[in-house]
Amino acid sequence: MLLPVGFTHPAKRAFAVAALVAIAVFPAVARGENATPTCDAPFSMTRLINPLTRVAERLKSGKPITIVAIGSSSTAGSGASSPTATYPSRLAVELTQRFPGHTITVLNRGVGGEEVYDMLKRFDADVIAVQPDLVLWQLGTNAVIRSDNLNGQDVAIVEGITKIRSTGADIVLIDPQFAPKVIVKPEATRMVELIASVAKREDINLFPRFDVMRRWHDVDHMPFKAFVSPDGLHMNDWSYGCLAKAIGVAISEAAQRPVLSVKTSSHIVH
Question: Cα separations (Å) of 96 from 64, 87, 102, 232, 252?
Fold first, then answer.
């Protein structure tokens, strides 16, 4: 907001300053409710701890890369307007753009309503059989919203990790979404902490979806309706797209870390 030369009226000046502060703190509100929000996913938050050595080898050799995204409804794409708007579909586009000339396939193996134990039953057919180079395992949400007893969940997760490791594939765990129907449950925080604990203990990469989405709400002051579907649980086209972009950046860096780690250490997704 520009002030005319010679403008000195205190009341008007105070109004102008207040308007500038409002725009700075609440940019989406200042631009209107329908403005497209910024995809805020700082690389310092989403960086994968371990390099993706299997993906790196495939990139170096020029061989095709197969990624399996296994999980429940937020992998299958509930809340998305079409199959092309799911995070696995968007991730395939993202990685193809980042690695032109390479054949990269992202297989969506999400099944709505499943918990860790259900996924383990189909690991052999849906994950191991396709000989993946990278497995993105989204888990934990359904156990939380059903208020399940979380005892033993860590053992089941380790069982899945062991199966994936047997293939030589890289692994990334993805924790629950930060959404009204999830965070209202007292088990939500415990599940997020449990998954993080298993990832640390097993030295497995973790993509902190819960914290990224919480940042949108608590730091960026985005209302839930901007990134959560009307059902109060699933993500929407915008948030699936932002998730795919952030995971794409994380995968790209972790697969090229010896070359890019210094250059991209302060990168932020926009």
Answer: 11, 14, 7, 32, 11
Specify the number of domains making up the chain: 1
- The SS3 of residue 129 is helix
**116-166 pLDDT, tens digit each:** 999 999 999 999 999 999 999 999 999 999 999 999 999 999 999 999 999
Instruction: Assess if residue 58 is contained within a domain.
Output: yes
- 178, 191 in Cβ contact below 8 A? no
pTM score above 0.90: no
Q: Give the model confidence (pLDDT) of 174-190 as tens digits.
A: 999 999 999 999 999 99
Does 207 map to a domain? yes
Q: Give the closest residue to 168 by CA, choosing from 131, 125, 202, 141.
A: 131
In a domain, 232, yes or no: yes
